[in-house]
Amino acid sequence: MWRPSPGTVYPTLSQLEDEGLITLDRLDGRKTATLTEEGLAYVEENRAQLGEPWTDVAGDVRAENRTLAGVIAQVGMAASTVALHGTPQQATRAAEILEQARQELYGLMAQPKPPETPAHPAQSEDPPAAQEPPAPPTTE
């Protein structure tokens, strides 16, 4: 999944500002960009050519992969928080949790893949056969 880097974003923003299409301001310590009237007019005049950039970037990425990427980012932020602000015991436990997750993920990939199923299975004229509910889990 493509993510813009500061080395790509900031030169582009500077160029758009130089062309009078945006204004850059600071808000709560962060730079924000706002379209100028000239920028708004440019977007309206060129909407078809510009397309929808975020849709175009995400086009080939499945929704479940975008969800997974979001969770990965959240886990990274949580681990960083523990590393920066946690006790040594919390950092050790966090490393154990992440190591277990790493092993489980590789174990997941070692499992055989199920056969591909069509996105929209053909409709059968026969109603589905009744199935018994799964057995409740046992406790040991």
Please characterize this protein's 3D structure.
It is flat, with a radius of gyration of 25 Å. It has 140 residues and is mainly alpha-helical. Strand 1 and strand 2 form a beta hairpin. Helix content is 56%, strand content 9%. It has a two-stranded antiparallel sheet with strand order 1-2. The protein has two domains: 60 residues, Orthogonal Bundle (Arc Repressor Mutant, subunit A); 48 residues, no CATH class. The protein contains six helices and two strands; from the N terminus they run H-E-E-H-H-H-H-H.
**Mean of residue pLDDT?**
82
Q: Rg from C-alpha positions? A: 25 Å
List the uncertain runs: none
Largest sheet: 2 strands, antiparallel
Helix content: 55-70%
Strand runs, count? 2
> By helix and strand content, what is the structural category?
mainly alpha
Write down the CATH topology of the largest domain. Answer: Arc Repressor Mutant, subunit A
Query: How much of the sequence is in beta strands?
Result: 5-15%
Q: Determine the number of helices (DSSP H or I, runs of at least 4 residues).
A: 6
N-to-C span:
43 Å
CATH architecture of the largest domain: Orthogonal Bundle
Short description:
The protein is mainly alpha-helical and 140 residues long. The chain folds into two domains: 60 residues, Winged helix-like DNA-binding domain superfamily/Winged helix DNA-binding domain (Arc Repressor Mutant, subunit A); 48 residues, no CATH class. The chain is 56% helix and 9% strand.
